[in-house]
From TrEMBL:
Renumbered ranges of TPR repeats: 206-239, 240-273
Superkingdom in the source lineage: Eukaryota
GO terms for cellular component: cytosol
One family name in Pfam for this protein: TPR_8
The protein's name in its UniProt record: Uncharacterized protein
Protein family per UniProt: Belongs to the IFIT family.
GO BP field: defense response to virus; innate immune response
Organism: Conger conger (Conger eel)
PANTHER family the UniProt entry points to: INTERFERON-INDUCED PROTEIN WITH TETRATRICOPEPTIDE REPEATS, INTERFERON-INDUCED PROTEIN WITH TETRATRICOPEPTIDE REPEATS 5
Gene3D superfamilies: Tetratricopeptide repeat domain
Length: 316
């Protein structure tokens, strides 16, 4: 593929054309790797984690590592979702091979992509495949909270085409949860309705369960919130993103010992997470304040632990 064909790549819908930026590549990579390592191998989202990792490696100029992760993404997505959901992956391959100088191989993936589009046509050229809208939305959610509105728009378009698809319903619920503020009641919350919709489609979705619990807590329905947190932990006791939200719930509700226990478990799973160290520092700070108020003698030790974790959070 000669340089004059670069516009063909620019027209693709993939990570390379979505304007994705991230301030801390190492932190994002650590989170993605932890999700992969701690999955049971059957997690349907792992293929997208590989795709996101591939793009971060490209950002670092590590093209061969990007290629390796795309190969893993292709294998996982084909196994769990089918050929049609490889549209974005093949676009990413075309970009990586182009930058590796392997233009013939880049063209091969453009041809594969075109074959899928012909096999699964949309109603008009202006309408993208739902898989593109969905994966684009997932990428926006993964790379930064600042893209949450864009993610919401993507999932709305995906759901117009596939209203019963669990993945798009879940992504839409997460995007609504991130972008919804200052409502007066649980009942009027679109995020709450969508979270419950996902649980109708996927009753054992622990991640969505904890987000729904946080919504209940937001409207001071703490008993129902804690019930959902406990159920979610029973369903997914080793999922970092579930543990993280449950632990934060306990910290915000001043149940510091429960929060501390969960964040320590999370630290063992994800030792290079600046977020976890920061959360531990906040807990030790709160415990120190409580100790001072009660005339306890452990305030100095708690301050030391707080400082240690803040230092680690900054150094990672």
């Amino acid at each position: 593929m000669p340089d004059q064909d670069m516009p063909e790549l620019l027209q693709l819908e993939c990570h390379f054309t979505w304007g994705l930026n991230v301030t801390d590549l190492n932190d994002l990579q650590n989170r993605l790797k932890s999700n992969i390592e701690l999955s049971d191998g059957e997690d349907r989202n792992i293929g997208w984690s590989y795709s996101n990792l591939a793009f971060t490696k490209f950002k670092q100029g590590l093209l061969e590592e990007a290629q390796d992760y795309l190969e893993k993404a292709e294998e996982h997505i084909r196994k769990h979702h089918g050929e049609r959901q490889l549209i974005v992956t093949y676009g990413n391959f075309a970009w990586v091979y182009y930058h590796m100088g392997e233009h013939a191989q880049s063209q091969t993936y453009l041809d594969k992509l075109e074959k899928i589009k012909m096999q699964f046509p949309t109603e008009s050229p202006a309408v993208l495949h739902p898989e593109i809208y969905g994966e684009k939305g997932k990428a926006f959610l993964t790379f930064s909270h600042q893209y949450s509105e864009k993610a919401k728009d993507c999932f709305e378009k995906a759901l117009e085409l596939e209203p019963e698809e669990i993945e798009w319903n879940e992504g839409y619920a997460v995007a609504l949860h991130r972008t919804e503020f200052n409502l007066t009641s649980f009942q009027e919350s679109p995020a709450s309705r969508q979270l419950r919709r996902v649980l109708e489609l996927d009753p054992n979705n622990a991640y969505i369960m904890v987000l729904l619990g946080l919504k209940h807590a937001e409207y001071n329905e703490y008993q129902r919130a804690e019930q959902l947190m406990e159920t979610a932990m029973g369903l997914a006791p080793n999922k970092p993103y579930v543990i993280q939200y449950v632990a934060r719930f306990y910290r915000k509700n001043k149940q510091f010992d429960k929060a501390l226990s969960l964040f320590k478990r999370l630290q063992e799973m994800t030792p290079n997470s600046a977020f976890v160290h920061h959360q531990l520092a906040l807990i030790y700070k709160s415990k120190r304040q409580t100790s001072i108020q009660k005339g306890g003698e452990e305030a100095e030790a708690l301050l030391t632990l707080c400082i240690q974790h803040l230092d680690q959070a900054v150094s990672i």
